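Supplementary Methods, section 5.1.

A reviewer requested that the exact input to the structure prediction be made available. We therefore reproduce it here, unchanged from the version used in the analyses.
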Amino acid sequence: MTKETFVFFGLLAAIALAGFNSGNNLLYLISGVMIGSILISLIAGRVNLSRLSIRRRIPPYIFAGHPFRANLEVQNNKHLSGSYGVFLEGGGAQGTSLFFVSIEAKDKETREIELLFNQRGIHKFPPMTLSCKFPLGLFDLRKKVVDEQEIIVYPCIHEVDKLVQGSSQIQDELSSHLKGPGSGVYSVREYYHGESATNISWKLSAKLDKLTVKETEREEKRRVCVVLDNAVRSDSPASLAALERAVSTAASLVWHLSKNGYSLKLVTRDKTVGYGVGSEHTHRMLIALALAEAATDSTGGLPAGRGLFEGGAGVLVTCGDTRSTNDPRNAGFALVISGKIQDERK
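The structure derived from this sequence is encoded token-by-token as follows.
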């Protein structure tokens, strides 16, 4: 109840008492109208909040520690009546409240909100609260809405250009600049009789006053196998922090290389995602990293041998607890990154 409610009940009690003492029918009538207003406020307020549903539309990639924008939709599923003066709490950042003047019947209102998750893994959105003081402001009626939607938050990503450029086998370039089918321009030459006219550059031909053909370069996809050694010695805060840094680095490599067209493979102590390209394959690898847990040497080691790379370049990301960068088992990897070394550089 609001302050206005207490004032209203005080006036109602005073008028009812005066009518009882004086026997004035007008005071009884006013008291009856006020009691009717209370009933109308309760019933209309409940109807106002009924059959309202909430849906969040989130982007396809959500990374820990990175704020993201989402659309919050409030749908009025009533067939005849609208909803008015609705407040929504808990939809966005903590402490924010959204206000909807009116949501017409069978219609929806959309607001853009900013959200943030600090930890990777599976998350549920916190419950939200719908409230209104409709129609007379006597009662602050509330309705809790629980969102059962689960989302997977990917590990935090950061720039890895310097790490990638540090390896001679892994460079941020995707074509070998050889003539063949592709999208890049390899050279320009004069059109030969009998060739297909699909490669003729008409604009360039008009400038040079002769038929000119653009030759494209063949693109050779590079293959990289990202190996995450998620073994730690103990569950101490320092070891778990090193694991989080290693997972974040592996996710950053996957994100960076997939955006540049590499064919990628991911290997952890308990999960393997084979070579592939495209957004769906990137999602599979990031999900595996988002759900990666700390392991120990007793749970089994990483697969060994050059056959693991399947002709690609190998990148090892280790927590630094059970496997250092100078470990003899690292032979064959093009690049070795340690979570502990990253921490020391910071």
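The chain has three domains: 49-153, 161-169+221-345, 176-219. These observations are discussed further in the main text.
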